[in-house]
Amino acid sequence: MATLELSNLHARVAEEDGEQILEGVDLEVPQGEIHALMGPNGSGKSTTAKVIAGHPAYEVTDGEVLLHLDDGDIEGVELDEDTRTWNLLDLEPNERAALGIFLGFQYPAEIEGVTMTNFLRTALNAKLDEQAELFEEGDEDEADEEDAGYDTSPMEGAADEGEIGVAEFQSILQEKMDQLDMDERFARRYLNAGFSGGEKKQNEVLQAAILEPLIAVLDEIDSGLDIDRLQDVSEGINALRDEQGTGVLQITHYQRILDYVEPDRVHVMLDGEIAMSGGAELAEKLEDHGYDWVRDQVQSAA
């Protein structure tokens, strides 16, 4: 069972005299569990998500982001001592994704001209290709190719290019859309173009279902959703855990999504660090008492 571990994580904005945001985050998210990360605006929740994924806008100044793997976590790969624990800070974002880290965006981009189906199949094949490189000793030519980055895009290349061909992918896509109870017409549209806010968030969950990450970090996926879309997205998140065994770090301001997605653990972030952790009942206390209650509790215990 894979585990994402953040240890004494410090990070700042990656510019001269950039603001320090994370002040020593300690957090573990195991595969197969949903952990809610809550906190007020400016507490560091979204920064935490972006640092995990490798966003270049932030510089890690101390600490580690580790991914611990177990046998069977990476299909077809026999792990050894050197490949059981990875420091994600040493890896590029695409390498982190290949190991099983997924980031669901709060504001997904719209891309005209690229169908959902084409985008998702390209992403899946890119993950599998990168994964193969990470677990195989390559020669210098392969290293040069890696440095050069991807040489294809969702709008280029043969129709059946990649490990997962068109016909096989259609079967995978249908299975995942059935799992998430999504209309099949959704996949024929351009990526997020003309989508409602709720449809964009459903698309983020579909991407996670297709890529089957070990750990999915979902950054305020509940923002801007009406009650019907909130329920749809919540059912998708539950399916990620219950049917795929994905670990989920659900970042949110509010308790309302936790009415539909019951977390195994709740963590409260204040001033760039985890101030309090507990069970699902902690979210209910936050709903009743607010974040100042947490601050008062921490100060009383100091």
Describe the structure.
With 302 residues, the protein is of the alpha/beta class. 37% of the residues lie in helices and 25% in strands. The strands form three sheets. The chain has a six-stranded mixed β-sheet, with helices on both faces. Helix 2 (93-99) crosses helix 3 (116-134) and helix 6 (197-211) runs parallel beside helix 7 (227-244). 38% of the residues are buried. Mean pLDDT is 90; it is low at 138-143.
Key descriptive features of the protein:
single chain, 6-stranded mixed β-sheet, 4-stranded antiparallel β-sheet, globular, 37% helix, alpha/beta, 302 residues
Radius of gyration: 19 Å
Helicity, as a percent range: 25-40%
Mean pLDDT score: 90
Taken from the alpha-carbon principal axes, the silhouette is: globular
Q: Provide the low-confidence segments as ranges.
A: 138-143
Distance between the termini: 35 Å
Instruction: Give the strand content.
Output: 15-25%
Give a quick account of the main beta sheet: strands, pairing sense, barrel closure: 6 strands, mixed
Number of helices: 9
Along the chain, the helix and strand elements come as EEEHEEHEEHHHEHEHEEEHH
The count of DSSP E runs of length 2 or more, i.e. the number of strands, is 12
- The largest sheet has its strands arranged as 6-9-10-3-11-12
What class would the helix/strand composition place it in? Answer: alpha/beta
